[in-house]
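Design job #97: recover the sequence.
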């Protein structure tokens, strides 16, 4: 299990503090009218939860970098790694955990940030038109895996804590997206995909695909 941060994501501490202060103040002012404020505080609490996860250790496993629902599985071009690839997209709604975790072990070759629009992240064009942050990584057995944080209609803040040259381990927390979005994962074309469109996945716990083993 890899979990270096508290169960409530540090990105949510200021929001949770404000929500609790307002809820307490509303309770002092009028207990009945404070109920909606406490509901909002509970929503903020659940949004920024960041529970520990068991990390599958199967050789070649590509883990889901985010909680959510698979909305795309297709063969396409990886515009960041400049290659043909299999794309798996995971859409996060506001009720999912929004901490992003590395799908594989390896060394980061590039981190590319692109400003852009904020259309619904469930739409196909979001992958190339929305604000996004792409990480191109080389695995320990020299395969390329690209994973991209994509902002959405409500999401207005992509947080990424890694840079080119950093080494990631599968399940390691590397970023966060506030308030609903998606993560795209580009894999080698010979990867064995283990999920289908519509499947619900959990960050780290769900295996999206298995990479072919060299040699």
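Job complete. Output follows.
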């Amino acid at each position: 299990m890899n979990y270096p941060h508290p169960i409530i994501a540090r990105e949510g501490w200021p929001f949770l503090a404000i929500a609790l202060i307002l809820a307490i103040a509303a309770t002092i002012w009028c207990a009945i009218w404070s109920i909606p404020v406490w509901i909002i505080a509970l929503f903020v609490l659940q949004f920024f939860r960041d529970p520990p996860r068991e990390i599958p250790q199967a050789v070649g496993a590509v883990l889901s970098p985010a909680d959510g629902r698979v909305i795309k599985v297709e063969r396409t071009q990886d515009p960041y790694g400049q290659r043909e690839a299999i794309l798996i997209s995971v859409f996060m709604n506001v009720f999912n955990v929004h901490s992003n975790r590395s799908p594989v072990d390896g060394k980061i070759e590039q981190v590319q940030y692109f400003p852009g629009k904020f259309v619904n992240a469930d739409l196909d064009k979001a992958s190339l038109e929305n604000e996004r942050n792409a990480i191109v990584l080389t695995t320990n057995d020299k395969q390329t895996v690209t994973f991209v944080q994509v902002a959405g209609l409500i999401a207005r803040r992509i947080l990424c804590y890694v840079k080119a040259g950093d080494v990631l381990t599968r399940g390691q927390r590397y970023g966060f997206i506030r308030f609903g979005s998606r993560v795209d994962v580009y894999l080698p074309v010979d990867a064995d995909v283990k999920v289908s469109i519509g499947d619900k996945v959990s960050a780290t716990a769900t295996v999206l695909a298995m990479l072919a083993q060299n040699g």
